[in-house]
Amino acid sequence: RTSAKDPPLTAGIDHARGDILVPMDIDLQDPPELIAAFVARWREGYDIVYGIRAGRHSDTATKRVSAGWFYRVFNSMSPVRIPPNVGDFRLVDRRAVEVLRQLPERNRFMKGLFAWVGFNSIGVPYERPQRAAGTTKFSLWRLWNFAIDGVVSFSTAPLRAWFYVGVVIAAIAVLYAIFIITRVLILGIDTPGYASLLIAVLLMGAIQLLSLGIIGEYLGRLFLEVKARPIYVVEGVYRDGNVEPPQA
Q1: ∠ CA 187-188-191 to the nearest 5 degrees?
Q2: Among candidates 55, 108, 50, which has minimal Cα distance to 83?
Q3: Is the dihedral of CA 73, 76, 79, 80 positive or negative?
Q4: Do 50 and 114 form a contact (C-beta atoms < 8 A)?
Q5: What's the pTM?
Q6: Sign of dihedral through CA atoms 125, 131, 137, 142?
Q7: Domain residues of the chain, as ranges?
Q8: Which end of the chain has the smaller Cβ count within 10 Å, N or C?
């Protein structure tokens, strides 16, 4: 069945048998000849060797800017740091593969998981050529949702931020109440303010809806994890020219 890119990548990780694993996109925009440089670094003792897209000249200006902001925001919020301009194209040693296979979550943000496992890692810069044929399936909307998945999967900072927003708003409300009471009781100045009251109510309503939306993102992911559906469905395994039944 058709799914996002991370479940098929998880299937490959679970079924790979070799000493090293090199995931890459099927459009071959990432040059296969770079694998030799990955292997050379692996033989030097590195467990994970990832490709760094130098310049990202093959991407549009919008995608370059949005990607730059994503890495800044993610790395400022998450305890796990993702190297900028790095995709799934990398070499992964068997030791790291076995750790990745032990991770149980259904909502998988593989960029973060590759970084989370740690091990001795190094980057190899390369120029990514223009796409030879076809168009990317990742629209800006999908990239936006992909970014949200990444932040929610690896950081509770959005939840914590709304606690501080609530503290600030409560402090402002208390100070404003003291100001109003002082004007009325001491100075005898009435405070008409249907317009200001309406604005305050609308502002608080918007803040509450936004905070509920962030909480809903986390609850939705908990709901999916609790259902514990399989990450992927395997029809058959092609190995050595034969089709094997899926593993139990």
Answers
A1: 105
A2: 50
A3: positive
A4: yes
A5: 0.67
A6: positive
A7: 6-139, 157-226
A8: C
Is pLDDT of 31 > 80? yes
Query: Pairing between strand 48-53 and 86-93?
Result: antiparallel
Q: What pLDDT shows up at residue 103?
A: 84
- Say how far residue 147 (Cα) sits from the centre of its chain: 5
Question: Has residue 221 got a pLDDT over 60?
Answer: yes
SS3 of 22, please? coil
Integer Cα distance of 67 and 76 in angstroms = 14
pLDDT digits over 52-90, tens only?
Answer: 887 666 666 777 777 777 888 888 777 888 888 888 888
In terms of DSSP H, where are the helices of 44-156?
Answer: 61-77, 94-102, 110-116, 140-154
Backbone angles phi, psi at 170, to 5 degrees: -60, -40
DSSP state string for 154-172: H--HHHHHHHHHHHHHHHH
Q: Which pLDDT belongs to residue 191?
A: 58
Task: Extract the tokens encoding 181.
Answer: 């009471």
CA–CA separation, 77 vs 60, rounded Å? 26
**What's the Cα-to-Cα distance from 211 to each of 145, 159, 208, rounded to whole Å?**
17, 8, 5
Cβ count within 10 A of residue 37:
16
Residue type, position 75, single letter: N
CA 87 to chain centre: 12
Neighbouring CB atoms inside 10 A of 138's CB total: 12
Burial degree of 22 (CB within 10 A; 0-12, 13-18, 19+): buried
